[in-house]
Amino acid sequence: MRDPRYDILFEPVQIGPVRTKNRFYVVPHALSMGMSSIDGMIAYRRARAEGGWGVVCLEETMIHQTSDHAPLPDPCFYSDSHVPQLARVAAAVKEHGALAGVELAHAGASGPAASHREHPLSPTAKFPHYYYNPITARTIDKQDIAQFRRWYRDAAVRAKSAGFDIVYVYCAHNLSLLQDFLDVKTNKRTDEYGGVFENRVRLLRETLSDVKDAVGDTCAVAVRFAVEDRRRASNITALEDGRRVVEALSDVPDLWDVNVSDWPWDSGSSRFFEEGQQEPFIDFVKKVTNKPVVGVGRFTSPDAMVSQIKRGVLDLIGAARPSIADPFLPNKINEGRHDDIRECIGCNACTAEVMTYVRIRCTQNPSAGEEHTLGWHPENVPPADDPSKTILVVGGGPAGLEAGHTLAKRGYQVSIADGGSEWGGRLVRERKMPRLSAWGRVVDYRVGQLQTMPNANMYLNSVLTADDVIGFEADHVIVATGAKWRKDGIGRNHDEPIPGADLPHVYGPEEILDGNLPRGEVVVYDEDYFYMATVVAERLARSGCKVTYITTASDPAPWTINTLELVHVINAMNEMGIEIVVGTSVTSISSGNITTSRILTGAESNRKVDAVVLVTGQISDDVLYHELIAKREAGEIASVERIGDCLGPGQIAQATKDGRKAGIEFCSTGR
Question: DSSP state, 613?
């Protein structure tokens, strides 16, 4: 039963000519599926509508061939042939009573238009954002502007005929031609579309009016607008032109979808941003418009959602990542099942997949992106074919807990054993490190669910040998014993141990995670390229060490550009006084000294150190698994498999996916 405190979340909201069933709103967000994966788009969006969201929107949908983010696949509405395909998506959303929205967009200078080998467009000739393509976006002339307005109108008409209820005009994330017109850094025009504010906002005003004239009788027209550009010094701020745009166009769109630019700030990770972090930038919007306002803030707490509404910040609770992590979040709040919510941990595994042109994934919700490809539902699992069968899971980290939870949910008899005193595997340590506490939700959710299941038994402080496992007499054994960090320096740049890696002043990450901290001048050497080395460096800097971070990569923690954290990682390290040295390899270690070599030139130098931390790679803890394989070959055990980091070290999202896969695919007649 719903808690009356949350009744306000289930009130309808009128948006122009359409009405939502509640205040839960899935904002446009990329899936990296595009027109070639319509069935995947349908299954993904349908799951969110089924889960109770009142509005479910498609991502950037391109209005012309001069606009794309190739190789990232985008939906398109620049041809009548696209209508039947995207109509299937709209219909799937509306099956469950949700409104279907679509974000019509032109990328302008942010995309190289590579799919059709067209010239990208810009208010003023410039290189495209974010790409190294040796191509300059051309300045659009008056004829181009007239065509641009026609492209938007035609795409809007197609969206209406496809059955969409809300049609967007996109002006956000530094990914929009319209946004480029507003910014004095990208708009150097001297005609009526450049110069003073009234001229720079002209094309946005005209485009919104065109779309309203074309479809506004039955469709709501929304604008997605970044009120503040946090990437750089800009005139687009909540105190300056960002506010002026909202004031000037306050009653033109039917809905204001407001945020900040660009993506690393709009979808900043939990390492650097708290829930609701955009409020200081967007809270003025409702004060200057009578139209409904939607915004995001990685909202997972229903209390925080209610607060946003009651305090007049938002009318609709926008979500991308929370809807990825739990498509059924609204239904669970409505049914009073708050403990069943899979809260987004803000790790941005989702954005990393899109940034690398792979379909979306989620650490908390392994079904995300697999709704069609694997047929996984975010809530429902196939029932056990024989509920009497017993499964033993060895290891209580993300993979083991997910496997155990899935199998128990199916109805099997499940036992999970872990040698530690806490559940979580790698996350027992990692969640206690700087900025990583939210990642503990991966463990808390699964442990909480398992503890309510009578067919799930959980055992801590249980180090099992191969003979112990055999003595358990389980029908199937899943080994999820994780991985350990190497201490020999073998990694991306070193195929053999680094000379001196075995010296007593050389540490691995696990020693730092356990609180065994060196003193003095410490070098943290990174060939892992993700978060661990920078987290270790921060931990040491906070303890008083003078830290130098060295990596063979050209950027610190380069994978974090995909999790939208790189700029924040660099800023944090600079603020803490951590010296950053890139493009450099540690080639040897001796007492009080290391030798380094520049990757590009081979030039060597020496550096005095008191300690070295090697963060170069992990190795699977698979001894038990191989012992059990030998037992299986001897006929002492029937069925065994390994998952997660025990199978191959990787991201936590891979571990939970492995766990779900093991849980779904098990059947009593064999794997």
Answer: E
Find all residues with CB under 8 Å of 108, minimum gap 6, and list them: 67, 120, 121, 122, 123, 137, 175, 176, 177, 178, 179, 180
**538-551 core/surface letters (b: 16 or more CB in 10 A; e: else):** bbbbeeebbbbbbb
Query: Which residue ranges form the domains of the chain, and what is each CATH number?
Result: 4-355 (3.20.20.70), 390-482+621-665 (3.40.50.720), 486-619 (3.50.50.60)
Rounded distance, CA 537 to CA 68, Å? 39
> Across all residues in the chain, what is the average pLDDT?
96
Give CA–CA dist 418/424, Å, rounded: 9
Lowest mean pLDDT segment, chosen from 49-58, 125-134, 594-603: 125-134
Angle between helices 142-161 and 82-94 (to 10 degrees): 50
pLDDT tens digit sequence for 529-557: 999 999 999 999 999 999 999 999 999 99
**CA distance to 68, 164, 227, 317, 556, per residue, from 258 (Å):** 23, 21, 7, 11, 31
Beta bridge partner(s), residue 391: 414, 476
Beta bridge partners of 294: 257, 316
Strands of 182-274, DSSP E: 220-229, 255-261
Rg (C-alpha) for the chain, rounded Å, is 27
Q: What is the dihedral of CA 520, 609, 582, 599, to 10 degrees?
A: -170
The stretch 55-72 carries a mean pLDDT of 93
Question: Which tokens belong to 443?
Answer: 């463990």
Which of 411, 495, 361 has the alpha carbon at shortest distance from 664?
411
3-state class (DSSP) for residue 306: helix
| Short-list 556, 524, 527, 569, CA closest to 543 | 524
| DSSP secondary structure letters along 373-413 | TT---SS--PPPS-TT-EEEEE--SHHHHHHHHHHHHHT-E
Contact 414, 446 (CB under 8 A): no
The CA-to-CA distance between both ends of the chain, in Å, stands at: 40
Please check the confidence at residue 671 and state whether its pLDDT lies above 70. no
Q: Quick check: 670 and 504 in contact, CB under 8 A?
A: no
Tell me the C-alpha to C-alpha distance, in Å, between residue 386 and each of 406, 668, 669: 15, 6, 9
Going from the C-alpha of 635 to that of each of 472, 630, 668, the distances in angstroms are 15, 9, 18
How far is the C-alpha of 492 from the C-alpha of 356, rounded, in Å? 20
Distance between CA atoms of 516 and 417, rounded to whole angstroms? Answer: 27
